[in-house]
Amino acid sequence: YLSVNGEKAENVKLTATIPIYKLQNLPVTVSFTHAPKAYLDTPLKFDSRPETVYAAVLQEGTEEISELVIGEIDFSTITPVKHVFSFDSSDIKNVKILDNTKKIDVTLQLPEGIATAKVNALKDNIVVEGADADSVYDIQFDGTGIVNVCAGSAEIQDIKPEDIHGVINLTDIEVNSTEQRVPIRFTVMSSENSWVSGTYYATVKIK
Is 86:28 a contact under the CB 8 Å cutoff? Predict the structure, then answer.
């Protein structure tokens, strides 16, 4: 029987939510963020080890899943040298891996001939989003202002400083007269299959 504060409770209705899991063998996949347009239309191919996992998948509504997204890969982290990524299976949400897989390695199949070059980013090509319209901002690069561009070897020599555009997003960031370090997201505007790799920052303050 049900006891409440030491007293026997009768005619009590209880509501409980019980999670339901479905046991499945699922191929693994990844999603990409900040991809150039060409890779939105045709995502990068990759190999994964293992290729499939046996998992208990939390059932939400009537939606069925046919593959397991194990994580995201930001294009700014991809270079011809760095194109192997590891994902901890314990970080995958709404899934319980049952086959003792602890880590999943993903190797990207980059197009042949991808090369890198250093290009100077122009301060005038950096825009501020989410800013106070009544404020004037002073922006200074952290470092030299040189960014690493990844592109096909045939076109990389044609990418110029004016092709590199940066965005500083100040949404949810409070900027005052004290210098604040914020990230810059760079893109190659002149090419649909080139990208800027690396992490870049600027110091921003209100003039």
Answer: no
Say which amino acid occupies 69. V
Q: Which token pair is 107?
A: 């190797």
- Judge if the upstream peptide bond of residue 36 is cis by omega within 30 degrees of 0: no
Structure tokens at 91: 């970080």
Q: What DSSP string runs through 45-110?
A: EEEEESSEEEEEEE--TT---SSEEEEEEEGGG--SS--EEEEEGGG-TTEEE-S---EEEEEEEP
**CA–CA gap between residue 114 and residue 64 (Å, rounded):** 37
pLDDT digits (tens, 9 = 90+) for 12-70: 677 777 788 889 999 999 999 999 999 998 999 999 999 999 999 888 766 778 899 99
Within the chain, what is the greatest distance between any pair of CA atoms? 82
> Do the beta carbons of residue 106 and residue 44 sit within 8 Å?
no
Q: Answer whether 0.85 is exceeded by the pTM.
A: no
